[in-house]
Amino acid sequence: MPEQLEILRLIRLLRYLVDGDIDSAAGYFPDDKAARDSLLALLGRNQLGGYFHLLIKDGPLQSLLPAVEAAELEKAYLTQAERAHSHLVLLKQLQQCFERRNVPFVVLKGLYISHRFFGDISKRFMWDLDVLVHPEDLQLALEAAESMGLAPTAELPVDVTDPRWGIHAVELADQRGKVDIHIALRNLPGIHIDLDRQWRHARPYTIDGAPLPCASDEDTLFLCCLGLGTDMRRGRFNLRKVWDVYLMLRQIDGTIDWPAFLAQRDREGALQLVINTLAFVIFLIDCAEECPSVVAALQPHSRRLIIGSTEDALALYGRRQSTLHNHRLFSRLLPIPAWRYWLQWLVTAPARRLYYRGTGPKKKP
Q: Distance (Å, rounded) from C-alpha 311 to C-alpha 325?
């Protein structure tokens, strides 16, 4: 369990830094080279190095780092800042292309989360852009993206609008970055997301002078919960994604009608998944006191929680990747019989594996 303990120490360190409690943060700051190396590696694996650099920049903790290690964190920040601004430029160009072809779209996650909840697009690492289009507009959207020089990265041509494939987005890329064009937030068995509602609740949001149509706070949180649920199936967590949800809960806990939020998830078949991903974040970060409204809203559903303690959250975080146990757990988060989940997963697995083989963060355009 060594990495889980390291994760807990890192979480506490980050929380103290976010709160501005430097004295308490110092108690979790590594004081020898081996511990510092471990911290830097952990930050790197979880794409938090640049964010950490900004949290300690020009403060007393930065002076505790040798110059080489401080420079490594600064490099991570400069890389993610350059990437974020490149993605913003790319998004503006994509917006112009879509508008010329009358393709409505909504910005998902990424730049919106960075600006809205981290305070600046350069503060958060992001792999790519995510935009949502209507399924009937997908071909027009792809043509618009390809006219800009973006090219599909998937190796298997399939009709992604056919839900039987279990594919919810098309990835395109060039040297400027990557764009995922979504026709659904996720394609999960038994979950039927009200996309019309997502479109109605989208709102204009200005990022660095660029007015963009973005998903609402509530829908952004829901999408992040769906992503964490998928990570549970894979047995592969990234603390950055957990931190996204934590910062959202920290800032919007008192503004969302949580019973209504959960009732909507229930109608969509996503309640079991959402309450457990929220519980996972709250227990792992130990932030119940910072988001009392959502904690109170989860109480009536306590018997449905598979993750009911910090120990449960840590055990889940430390599971091996892609084990049958992870799939068994994930099937319990869906509103369908386990046999149906396994059947759909097995039938679509070969096509999905081939389709996504050329996509994802490991491939650099």
A: 17
Lateral strand order in the sheet of 151-152: 151-152, 169-174, 177-182, 129-132, 106-108, 210-214, 203-207
Query: Do 126 and 87 touch, CB atoms closer than 8 A?
Result: yes
In contact, 150 and 173? CB cutoff 8 Å: yes
Q: What string of pLDDT tens digits covers the 365 residues of the chain?
A: 467 788 999 999 999 999 999 999 999 998 888 999 999 999 999 999 999 999 999 999 998 899 999 999 999 999 999 999 999 999 999 999 999 999 999 999 999 999 999 999 999 999 899 999 999 999 999 999 999 999 988 765 666 666 666 678 889 999 888 999 999 888 888 999 999 999 999 999 999 888 999 999 999 999 999 999 989 888 788 999 999 999 999 999 999 999 999 999 999 999 999 999 999 999 999 999 999 999 999 999 999 999 999 999 998 888 776 678 888 888 999 999 988 888 877 777 766 666 665 555 544 43
Cα 176 to chain center, whole Å? 21
Q: Which residues, listed in sequence order, are joined to residue 180 by a DSSP beta bridge?
A: 130, 171
User: Distance (Å, rounded) from C-alpha 219 to C-alpha 217?
Assistant: 6
List b or e across 210-243, with b for residues whose CB sees 16 or more CB atoms inside 10 angstroms. eebbbbbbbbbbbbbbbbbbebbbebebbbbbbb
Asked whether the CA dihedral 187, 212, 141, 173 is positive or negative, the reply is: negative
Q: Tell me if 13 sits within 8 A of 25, measured CB to CB.
A: yes
Those residues with Cβ within 8 angstroms of residue 48's Cβ, 6 or more apart along the chain or in another chain = 10, 14, 125, 239, 240, 243
Residue 170: other Cβ atoms inside 10 A: 22
Residues 6+ apart with CB under 8 A from 30: 36, 38, 39
Residue 169: both structure tokens together: 């987005």
